[in-house]
Amino acid sequence: MLFPLPLRVACSLLAWLSLYAWSCHRYKHRNYEWSCRLVTLTHGILATCLSAYIGFIDGPWPLSHPGSPNTTLQVHVLCLSLGYFLFDLCWCVYFQTEGALMLAHHLVSILGITASLALGESAAEVNAVIFGSEITNPLLQARWFLKEMGCYHSFTGDVVDFFFVVLFTGVRIGVGAWLMYCELASPKPRWYIKLGGVIMYAVSWVFMVSICRFARRKSMKKYHAWRSRRSDELYLKTNGHLKNH
Q: Origin, by domain of life (predicted)?
């Protein structure tokens, strides 16, 4: 016998709170954000794997079946993610760590998941949105942890940034546009589910603008550093101070 949806969401919220409490106890020498980021990383990995399995293996395919009835597995994953988003939204509001855009992202996610669970439909595309949103999350958290440990300005940090930009652009912007088109073209999904999808895609584009600015700044910084090293090498060669080996 399946538990009622509110109880399942409450259990999910309790599980994320318990993980956060354990992390705070385990890493007493770290700040609270360290523990919250561990929870976020865990959810990002779980949500990405589960939503990928639903979309690519279990089905139905979200691009061809938007607005279809929810499956049991889809409901489980939506309850899992809804509990996390409720936890993270409360944490961000309490500690005032995020701006209005991220809070809006969480609110729309919560409303979209809740609407899908209440209607009993459209979980296919909502799970697809979760997949697209969470696939870059582990890289984002890895970037933060690298900074905290003083390892960000390294080859590893460059690799993490590169794959984050590539995945965000390809999945959230590229595939996201395809999913939004299929959602809007289909007569099955409710109008407010479609509106939620458009808002989420618009939020992704706002993030994309910031990411493009970051990528440009980092690329220019790397280029100027390379030019500086190159100039130093040429100077040493010209003055005969660089020995050949």
A: Eukaryota
Model confidence over 105-156: pLDDT tens digits? 999 999 999 999 999 999 999 999 999 999 999 999 999 999 999 998 889 9
The Cα 189–Cα 232 span in angstroms is 62
Tokens 């090498």 belong to 233
- The DSSP bridge partners found for residue 121 are 69
Residue with tokens 């309850």: 79
Q: What is the pTM of this model?
A: 0.87
Contact 134, 176 (CB under 8 A): no
8/60 Cα distance (integer angstroms) = 23
Residues 70 and 167: their CA atoms lie apart, in Å, by: 27
- The secondary element (H helix, E strand) that includes residue 126 is helix 123-134
Separation between Cα atoms, residue 45 and residue 35, nearest integer Å:
16
